[in-house]
Amino acid sequence: MKINVLITKEQLEKKTVELAEAITRDYEGKELVLVGVLKGGFIFLSDLARKIRMNVAIDFISVSSYGNSTESMGVVKIIKDVDTDVVGKHVLIVEDIIDTGLTLNYLKDLFNTKGCASVKLAAILDKPERRKVDIKVDYPGIKIPDKFVVGYGLDYAGNYRNLPDVCVIEEM
Ligand code: IMP
Ligand code: MG
């Protein structure tokens, strides 16, 4: 197994600071709920939350997409919904990566039916070549080529989420 670094932890940190500053500016004085998408979003959410300079509430939603481990099929199953009452609150969905866009598209529609004041999206990584739906990420992260990556929350069959950098598995 050969693992190569694609995006360093320093690049991830720099982008996270930029996004946190924009979020602080945009939501100052508002009630913001960060909704982390489990499991992949947990590391980005924990870094982002600590760089936002205002109070936020934090909750998680757990989803799984039907299909095999590396290909999203667009049908999203909610394993665990948020416990927080999000009616009238500003929700920011925090994801590890936007790939086809189907997951974030589904989640945005879901929160729009819950009566939130607003629903926006943040994702630390973006594979633009793979997009299947036209969806705007309000707080976009770092663009990467169409390669399967692990680390910084992202897994391969449940492993490698704890790698501090975003890496590509070159040889299985
Ligand atoms: P989408 O619905 O196709 O945008 O897929 C988003 C989800 O697919 C992410 O939340 C990840 O869990 C997973 N995913 C997409 N690309 C990768 C990758 O390169 N490595 C690991 N997981 C990925
Ligand atoms: Mg995910």
Q: Can you lay out the helices and strands and say which pair or pack?
A:
Elements: E1 2-7, H1 9-27, E2 32-38, H2 42-51, E3 57-65, E4 76-80, E5 90-98, H3 102-112, E6 118-126, E7 139-143, E8 149-150, E9 166-171
Parallel strand pairs: 2-3, 2-5, 5-6, 6-7
Antiparallel strand pairs: 1-9, 3-4, 8-9
Bound molecules: inosinic acid and magnesium ion (MG).
Query: What is the percentage of strand-forming residues?
Result: 25-35%
Rg over CA atoms: 15 Å
Bound molecules: inosinic acid, magnesium ion
What spatial form do the alpha-carbon principal axes imply?
A: globular
DSSP summary: helix tally: 3
How far is it from the N-terminal to the C-terminal residue, by CA? 5 Å
Q: Sheet bearing the most strands, described?
A: 6 strands, mixed
Task: Give a count of the beta strands, DSSP E runs of length 2 or more.
Answer: 9
Tell me the helix content: 10-25%
Listing every helix as H and every strand as E from the N terminus to the C terminus, the arrangement reads: EHEHEEEHEEEE
Biggest sheet strand line-up: 4-3-2-5-6-7
Q: SS-based structural class?
A: alpha/beta
Task: Write a brief caption for the model.
The protein is an alpha/beta fold and 172 residues long. Helices cover 23% and strands 34% of the residues.
